[in-house]
Specification:
This protein is about 40% helix and about 20% strand. It is an alpha+beta fold. The protein has one domain. The strands form 4 sheets. It has a 5-stranded antiparallel sheet with strand order 1-9-8-10-11, with helices on one face. Strands 5-4-6-7 form a 4-stranded antiparallel sheet, covered by helices on one side. Strand 14 (about 235-240) and strand 15 (about 240-245) form a beta hairpin. Helix 3 (about 130-150) runs parallel beside helix 7.
Length: about 270
């Protein structure tokens, strides 16, 4: 009877551990190099960002080769939102033939003024329609925003979402496990998670409003009705910037939220 009880306990322990192990294996079987840059290739590293001019010095490392090899030297031309040392957001690449630039002005010159020759590149995918490329970039930015708010295990230069993988890396390397949030490291997991919650709250406090004439609305439905009733254009406002393009407004919104996240995390990093 005693042997049977021990066997039952062992089986129960294995069954309880199996879901966690399976999830761990599914999501992060192998560790990856810690990412301090966006993953979008082609024109990944054109736009730099900060929050209100503050320098979140630990938010991202300044790696060698920050500019994409596929981008020309005019990578920072044309309307960056805000700048920050070391923080680089994915942007649209303009492709003419086999050449890619991150500057529309250069693309126009390369195409000899023929817009039909210009294609648009986001995350290694080429688009003929610029609107589709803008939507694709918005999706990439959204994923980047969520990545910044995710606490990962960091051992040396390798990161993983799996605690078992992190434990194995630490055992093999003799290095401690730290907790990475927005490319900043924390020694305490609870602190990193608390800062992540604070950073998300800071990002969510930044919102978009809708403008019709002199009126500002917090509800898009009411704004749309007012625009139709008064035969006026519907505009989108983020901060002090207003545009008639919804995709542009949503892009500004996520970029500004990213800036707020980086600033919040940077302020919380132990000196």
């Amino acid at each position: 009877m005693r042997h049977r009880s021990v066997f039952v306990i062992l089986v129960a322990a294995v069954l309880c551990a199996t879901p966690a192990l399976a999830q761990c294996k599914k999501t992060c079987e192998k560790a990856k190099p810690c990412q301090s840059k966006s993953q979008d290739k082609g024109c990944s590293h054109g736009k730099t960002i900060s929050a209100d001019g503050h320098h979140a010095k630990h938010a991202h490392e300044h790696a060698e080769g920050a500019k994409s090899a596929m981008c020309t030297s005019d990578v920072t031309c044309d309307g960056d939102l805000v700048r920050h040392e070391g923080i680089e957001l994915p942007r649209i690449g303009f492709k003419v033939g086999e050449k890619i630039t991150c500057c529309m002005k250069s693309a126009t010159e390369m195409s000899a003024g023929d817009p039909a020759k210009i294609k648009f590149v986001v995350a290694d995918k080429t688009y003929v329609n610029q609107g589709e490329a803008m939507e694709a970039r918005l999706t990439v930015l959204g994923k980047y925003y969520e990545h910044l708010l995710t606490v990962e295990y960091a051992v040396g230069d390798e990161c993983t979402a799996c605690p078992l993988t992190a434990k194995d890396l630490a055992h093999k390397s003799g290095k401690p496990i730290r907790y990475r949030l927005a490319a900043s490291d924390f020694a305490d997991k609870a602190q990193a998670e608390n800062v992540a919650a604070e950073a998300r709250a800071a990002g969510e406090r930044i919102t978009m409003s809708w403008v019709v004439g002199e009126e500002t609305f917090c509800c898009p439905g009411h704004a749309g009705q007012a625009a139709e009733k008064n035969d006026k254009k519907l505009e989108y406002r983020v901060g002090e910037q207003t545009t008639v393009c919804e995709t542009t407004a949503k892009t500004r919104l996520i970029e500004t939220r990213i800036a707020a996240v980086l600033e919040t995390v940077a302020k919380a990093v132990p000196s």
